[in-house]
Amino acid sequence: MTTEPTTPAAPAPAVRRASTRDRAGRIFAGLSTGAGALILIVLAAVAGFLLLEAWPALTAGAEELTSISWIPDDGSLLTYVGPLIFGTLVAAVLALLLAVPVAIGIALFISHYAPRRLSSALGYVVDLLAAIPSVVYGLWGGLVLAPLVQPVWQWLSETLGWIPLFEGPAATPARVMMTVGVVLAVMILPIITAVSREVFLQTPRLHEEAALALGATRWEMVRMAVIPFGRSGVISASMLGLGRALGETMAVLMILSPGLTYSLALLLAGRQQTIAANIALQFPEASPLGVSALIATGLALFVITLAVNMLARWVVARRADFSGAN
Questions:
Q1: C-alpha span between 177 and 164 (Å, rounded)
Q2: Going by fewer Cβ within 10 Å, which terminus of the chain is more open, N or C?
Q3: Contact assessment for residue 88 and residue 178, using Cβ atoms and an 8 Å cutoff
Q4: What is the pLDDT of residue 18?
Q5: CA–CA distance, 236 with 202 (Å, rounded to integer)
Q6: DSSP secondary structure letter of residue 166
Q7: Would you place residue 323 in the very low, low, confident or very high pLDDT band (cuts 50, 70, 90)?
Q8: What is the three-class DSSP state of 13?
Q9: How many domains, in total, are found in the chain?
Q10: Is residue 8 in a domain?
Q11: 11 confidence band (pLDDT: 50, 70, 90)
Q12: What is the rounded distance in angstroms from the CA atom of residue 61 to the CA atom of residue 223?
């Protein structure tokens, strides 16, 4: 008597679905890990490229560096890079001081004061500002804004000239750091406004209603509920804007009359220069060693940007109780 071989039973549909989900989960986890690792690889590659290309200038002697036309007579790379770092920080901080209060006001108006249709239209307009190329901002700043603000800068220098920031007489035309700060503020305004607006809109409705129920006015509700909730988001938005201002090139190049001094005079021409604008200005006619020196200044800008972002992460982490995650 022979027995027929038995065929194995087909796996249950539920088992097949669980196996498929596990496989998809492993694939997604691998892709996510690879994407995160790719960011670190790209960052390391950029840092390695800057360091490798800047190494000839970093190791060159004073006699070699003085052969570069724009290096100071003492042949010190630090003497050359220092004023550029100073000018970059002055331009970025000035833009941030001008842009942040206006951006917060616009974000609050769009999120809590404007009618729905008006807020939607204003949101689109603010987002469109971010799409304008920097060269257009440079043309606008040099050809339109500089002549318009010249009387204002002249009045500032005559009225507040005893303050080092407004030391005068104001340069004519107004291709000075103050004009650059205004243009950079307009450029980073949509970034800070858009992020702050989205953060303010995430304020829990119950918090706002509770404040109003206790008799708070709309401003008191915004001050007690909305602004504390969105504080870390505003800080993050400001750091994003600061990063944009630190690396801006064409607008600064087309407006500012450059100089290499440690000067806080915002209304005098030929006093400051930024790293990015200086690279764009000197690169076309630079020798191989000159290119290496310019890349060394780019390495300094890379370190500054990295430090700014790390500082922003630390500040946001300290303000985690206002992030809305709790």
A1: 13
A2: N
A3: no
A4: 63
A5: 15
A6: G
A7: very low
A8: helix
A9: 1
A10: no
A11: low
A12: 57
